[in-house]
Amino acid sequence: MDAAPADSADSAGSSDTVEPDRPAGPDRPVEADTTPVATDDVQGIVAAIGPRLRALRLGRDLTLDALAAITGISVSTLSRLESGHRRPTLDLLIPLARAHRVALDHLIAAPATGDPRLHLRPRHRDPGSVLVPLTQYPGRVQVFKQVLAPREPRLVSHVGYEWLYVLAGELRLLVGDRDLTLHPGDAAEFDTAEPHWFGPAGTEAVEILHLFGPHGDQAVLRTGTAAG
Q1: What confidence tens digit (pLDDT) does each residue in 201-215 have?
Q2: Which long-range contacts (CB under 8 A, 24 or more apart) does 10-15 make?
Q3: Which terminus of the chain faces fewer neighbouring Cβ atoms within 10 Å, N or C?
C-alpha cells in the first residue's frame, strides 16, 4: 500500500538577490535583498502548482495510480495536490520533480533571483492560470510561458501574429472554422486578424510557450461563443 506523507502546513519563503553598486568580488560579496515577496505573488505561485502538476502527469500519459506507484505518494494526496486542496511541500514536490524528470523550480515557478532585468516574475491571472513574460521589448515580438486553466471559448481578433508550442497537456485551438487539438511537442502559428481562441482541450490545465507579434496586445472581443 502506498504511504502518504504526513500532512503539514509548511510554506516556503524566498528572497531576491540584487546587484550591488559595484561588482561583487572576494572582498565584496553580493548582498541579499531582504524585501519580502508580496503575499499575492506567493498565493499565485502556490495556486499554479496544482494545474502544473496535473498538466505534467497528463502530458506523460500517467494515471494517478501509476504516479503513486512511482513516487510513493498516495493517490488521494496526489489528487488533492492537483486540485489545490493540499498545500505543496518539499517532501511532496521533490519526488514529483524526479518522477517527471524536471527541475524543482519548474514545478514551483518561484519568484526570480538575481538581476531583475533578466528574470521576470510570474503573473497570476484567472484561478489556476499563470503567465510568465520571458521578454520585455515594447513594439517587438513578446514571448510568454503560460499555464492555462479550463475556460469558456471566446473568439477574439486583433492585429498581429502568434506562435504556440505545447509543453504539457492538450491545447485546443480555434482559428476561423478550424478546431484543432495540439499535444506536447506540437506547434501552431496563425495571423491574429482571423478570429481565434486557445485553451485546454478538456478539463485539465495546459502549459505552453506563446510568441506574440507586434501590436498583438490590442485584442478585440467578438460577440458570441464558439460551439463545443
Answers
A1: 999 899 999 888 765
A2: 10/87, 10/89, 10/90, 11/42, 11/46, 11/87, 12/90, 13/37, 13/42, 14/110, 14/111, 14/113, 15/113
A3: N
